[in-house]
């Protein structure tokens, strides 16, 4: 799969997939999108309920969400166990072209970028004492999580029109079952069909302000009762 490194409007980089005519992140700002959708609306919210959070990420991609999550643990001393799925891992050659050093302003954080990508697959690796990473080279459809094994899902798959098989009722039932009561799923997507799938699975659906360039995003909450 051919990939092109492109700069987004906030100066951060993303990847463009010509085969899908799709970007990995918002062209309005990859960094701002990740910080808003996954850190602010996802992780920070989860940390109001748990001191240690078990995260499932759908789509490791460039590693930006994982890196920003690790950054949050450095700042807050929160503990995170981070499982991430990626059917098509990036080559280290492409990783080296991403230029994260040009827009990640925390020098300490950059020390962890290479270890995140170099960490072996299918193994739990303690990147720091507070952040444990397990990368799984598997498609979401084939992934079979244990019931209630996660507190938070970062749902960062390509858009529904690009990968419709990852946005089905069955997929979101799987995500619902994998979450502990009170757990949440966050994503940039706000399509009506997607929200109906969340509701069909049992989620309470919250429409939240979106990141730059997007009016809304979505958070699904698994009820505690």
Automatic annotation (TrEMBL):
The organism's place on the tree of life at top rank: Bacteria
Pfam families reported for this sequence: Methyltransf_30 (PF05430)
Record-annotated MnmC-like methyltransferase domain positions: 130-223
InterPro entries: MnmC-like_methylTransf (IPR008471), SAM-dependent_MTases_sf (IPR029063), tRNA_MNMC2 (IPR047785)
PANTHER family noted in UniProt: MNMC-LIKE METHYLTRANSFERASE DOMAIN-CONTAINING PROTEIN, SLL0983 PROTEIN
This protein's name: tRNA (5-methylaminomethyl-2-thiouridine)(34)-methyltransferase MnmD
Upper lineage: Bacteria, Pseudomonadati, Bacteroidota, Cytophagia, Cytophagales
Record gene name: mnmD
């Amino acid at each position: 799969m051919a990939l092109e490194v492109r700069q987004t409007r906030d100066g951060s980089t993303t990847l463009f997939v010509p085969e899908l005519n799709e970007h990995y992140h918002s062209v309005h700002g990859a960094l701002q999108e990740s910080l808003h959708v996954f850190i602010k609306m996802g992780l920070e919210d989860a940390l109001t309920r748990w001191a240690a959070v078990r995260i499932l990420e759908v789509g490791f991609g460039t590693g930006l969400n994982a890196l920003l999550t690790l950054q949050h643990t450095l700042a807050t001393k929160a503990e995170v166990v981070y499982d991430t799925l990626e059917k098509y891992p990036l080559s280290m050659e492409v990783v080296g072209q991403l230029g994260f050093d040009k827009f990640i302003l925390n020098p300490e954080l950059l020390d962890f970028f290479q270890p995140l990508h170099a960490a072996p697959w299918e193994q739990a690796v303690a990147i720091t004492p507070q952040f444990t990473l397990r990368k799984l080279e598997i498609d979401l459809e084939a992934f079979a999580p244990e019931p209630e094994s996660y507190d938070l899902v970062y749902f960062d798959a390509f858009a529904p029109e690009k990968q419709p098989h990852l946005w089905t009722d069955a997929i979101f039932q799987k995500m619902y079952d994998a979450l502990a009561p009170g757990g949440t799923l966050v994503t940039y997507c706000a399509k009506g069909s997607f929200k109906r799938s969340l509701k069909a699975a049992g989620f309470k659906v919250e429409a939240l302000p979106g990141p730059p360039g997007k009016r809304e995003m979505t958070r699904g909450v698994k009820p505690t009762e």
